[in-house]
Amino acid sequence: MCGIIGYLGPRPPLEVLIEGLKRLEYRGYDSAGIGVFHRGRIEIRRSEGKLQALEDAVRGLSFDGGVGIGHTRWATHGRPSEQNAHPHKAGRVVLVHNGIIENYLSLKERLKKEGRSFSSETDTEVLAHLIDLEIKRGRAPEEAVRTALREVQGSYALAILIEGYPDLLLGARKESPLLLGVGDGEFFLASDAPAVLPWTRDLVFLEDGDIVAITPGGYRVTDLEGAPLTRNPQRVDWSPSMAEKGGYKHFMLKEIHEQPQAVINTLRGRILEEEGRVHLEDFPLEEEEVKGLERVVLVACGTSWHAALIGEYVIETLAKVPVEVEIASEFRYRDPLGGQRTLLVAISQSGETADTLAAVREARGRGFRTLSICNVLGSTLPRETEGVIFTHAGPEIGVASTKAFTAQLAALYLLALHFGRLRGNLSRDRVREHIKLLRAVPGLMEEVLRQEGEIEALATDYAHYRNFLYLGRGISYPVALEGALKLKEISYIHAEGYPAGEMKHGPIALIDEEMPVMVVAPRDHTYEKAFGNINEVKSRRGRVIALLNQEDQRLQAEVDSVLRVPYTYSLLSPFLTVLPLQLFAYHIADFLGTDVDQPRNLAKSVTVE
Predict the structure, then answer these.
(1) Which of 2, 22, 174, 486 is catalytic?
(2) Is the pTM of this model over 0.70?
(3) Residue 607 has what pLDDT?
(4) Is 604 a catalytic residue?
(5) How far apart are CA 27 and CA 392, in angstroms?
(6) Which of 172, 160, 151 is nearest to 107 (CA)?
(7) Percent of the chain beyond pLDDT 70?
(8) In this structure, is residue 603 part of a structural domain?
(9) Same domain, 261 and 175
(10) Active site (annotated) includes residue 2
(11) Out of 50, 249, 529, 604, which one is annotated catalytic?
């Protein structure tokens, strides 16, 4: 999400920080800031908006210190503003932070009782106060950081300065990337390699639990208990473009592989397993209002609409409330019925989709209650709905949406559990069971992604076909729609997603040896029906690719090719089944040489009708 750069060495730190931040702009951000030692104190400059505003704010300034930190922020807690931009300061401590502190509210309340005052809406500021308290208690800087971080639940990548220590740069990592660049008498901290490649290619990739202390004489790495660790530099030969992509060939491929972490980030801080409930921090309805709901309407466009179709199955199953799914561009041209007992949930990655915003405005005018699911804090959609569930997928650069989709699924599942508990359809123990299953999903997603080589080989075999049919039943039908959309978006191959039960009502006329059929058939209550569809395709000389569970041997003998995913609870299966379809589409497009990240005629966010 956010970008971090830190520097200690003989160069003017400000120049390094600004250049490093420029090389992190591709990650997306809404504000930026720097902190640099000058005359024994740490000078901070911050600005909302693009990096140019920060450059204007520091133009003509010079600092006599040799150490500094910088940050570009993608808002998660607190609106985009200069006040919420990093670095944050408490006492003698100045720091920048990527990640999410799950227990920041309880820590903040405790710190307020101890006389601490806060100047931002962020979770990050809590960290600065915790470390400063330990400094005031006489702890050395490294031990102060270790002690403070032992109180923290959540994820972090940190770069830290402390007044009184003008030759010290500290870093720490847990579940958010952080690396150390080692140069000739100089050192760098960064969230991503592009920030440091102009000066060094020798990188130390820090691991979870690492704390690094950097001085002009070198660096040392310890764990949270203070035990020394060996972390040696590795030389990387990435071009700047490859470094932005984390070593992947395209942003889309990088974002496909980021999906397990995107799901973790969306769940983090919201699932209270011991209590058997879900916490949604900006949910607009009270318990009695949720109980009184007569229906939920999900509105979205494109990939977000496919997520909504899956959400319909999940919410109706777990919460027992009627759900309708509407294409946002059609909703406003109907005469939608509703009122205070109807909740409209608008889903958009960018929060700027014109048709989705129009649907929200139409619903509000008719008295609907409104909620949004969005990835961009500060965008228009969350401001125009009563409440919001932010997905924390991070910036999505590739036009064809991947990680935003699975993060939306996670948000919809949380909403379903929340509804189910409040409406009395799910007991505490049942919610705990669902949470346990949900927690396991990112690990299962990793298993699927490790099969990329096999999926790439299969994609190469099928890349010469010009038409595909994707079939699925039940909750797998929207997955088939999404798989077909991905293929047509980036490879320019015609592909149609269809409910498997409708194949005889038209699509069967198209099937021949030049029309491969992708059948999404994990084991659920619709599984047996897949045999009939496969036989119908094979009898017409069609080729069948089946997407099956790993242990399934029955269907394998009936088809030409197989993609496999681990078994999970049926309502969670889309998290897994969509991944091979994304990779299949990606590798066909890459084989054909199309512009994967910027496919023709498409825009990342459709901001006009």
Answers:
(1) 2
(2) yes
(3) 42
(4) yes
(5) 13
(6) 151
(7) 96
(8) no
(9) no
(10) yes
(11) 604
